[in-house]
Amino acid sequence: MHARNKYKKQKPDFLELARHRPSLQPHLIHKGPNYVTINFQDPSALRELTCALLEQDFDLKIEIPLDRLIPTIPLRLNYVHWIEDLLSDDGSVPSGCGIHGIDIGTGASCVYPLLCTRLNGWMFTATEIDPLSIECATKNVCINKFDENITIVKVDGDAILDGVVAGDTTYDFCMCNPPFFQDAVDREGRAVNRTGLRPSPPGLSTSKMADHEVVTEGGEVEFVGRILMDSLKLRQKIRWYTSMLGKKSSIKELLKQIKHHQVPVVTTTEFVQGRTHRWGIAWSFFESEKHKVNKSNSGNKKEKVYTMHLPEVFTDRKQTKDWITKQFTDLQVEWSVGDEQQSYVCKAVKRTWANQRRKRRLAAEHERSASKRPKHCTAQPEFADCSHENDDITAIPQEVSIESCHLEFVCILNKSDLQFKWLRGDDKDHLHQIIQYLKNQAHLLNRQTMNQATHAHSQTTLK
Fold this sequence. Notes:
- By secondary structure, the chain is of the alpha/beta class.
- It has helices spanning 14-20, 43-58, 73-87, 111-120, 131-143, 184-187, 211-214, 219-234, 248-260, 317-330, 352-370, 428-462, and strands spanning 29-32, 35-37, 100-104, 123-128, 150-154, 171-176, 238-245, 265-273, 276-284, 306-309, 334-337, 343-350, 404-413, 417-425.
- Helix 3 packs across helix 4 (111-120).
């Protein structure tokens, strides 16, 4: 969460909010003496919370239909504060009507222009294609008496920036929360994965949203790609072109497109709110903005360290060293001793850990199939000719294909844990997978050691 986000240090008090907004009260869920929450997948509950936060903390009143996108305020604030960082020339947040932004697809809530105007007094051109959303957004602007700051503009389905930016008018930034999904299947969270059962991203309830708010042909990469194409025409008419992204994988593809068009300045960031992660991308045709690239990361995050606690079977450092280096060798992870004798610099070029998991799944499936095999069939699975007895029996493949990857990380040995730092690579998830693999192996060793000790003790008792 961004360092200036007001909810970073003080989380919303749902009970206090409900006292000021009684309509929130029925949606509160009491999970303990000091823990009250709501069902964030329930649009009615989310709307009440959003309206309560805006009224209590920002003196903003809005109305939102249940069949339109309901914004979560802490996450939106992260994006707003990042925009402030990009526009700041001296470390202070720029304010006043001298700052003019464009909100692409403002939605029924018109939340970004309302927040930015309330916090900083900025001017906004807010575009929208949906008649109902335009009606609601216009009403929300009038309720809060921001008619002089915020202009709602109706555009057709193909227009994004080209046609909105006209004449000699220049803007400081544009912002966008594009439709995430490319079709109905993608919307339902059925993206390709190992089980086919992975749920939709946390923090996103799409059940009652209008299709145009969450689905677009080609998904968010295609949509932001269209903003990029417009920016190549408009160039310095807008100081910063920005967008929020719902999928981490979109960053890589969009950076490739931006680099291809030789845009001089580009930066990315991550917005974190609880379990919900979103990403931001921004680019500029002003060379003078380059110095801000390393300063605009939300929250000025420190290098993250992932800790793996060792089970009790690990009693001394030498044993831990021997075990971890054996695991790296088994996984074909290249390693060398770091500057400190208690650290290892590691590099992986194959996802062998995923291969190990797959082998275990296949072995388990094979074991279940073998239990159904006729008792008179005693040959080994690889060579038995029992297909006429049971067509479901399948031997474990002798070779399982291994995906290539690029991962570099550091492993630090401490007295009772291992710490991991990601250096570079294709995907941080690869490091998470290795850590999980090592946890599984460590707990397996611990269980085996305990079983052996128990068995030895029982044998001694019998004697």
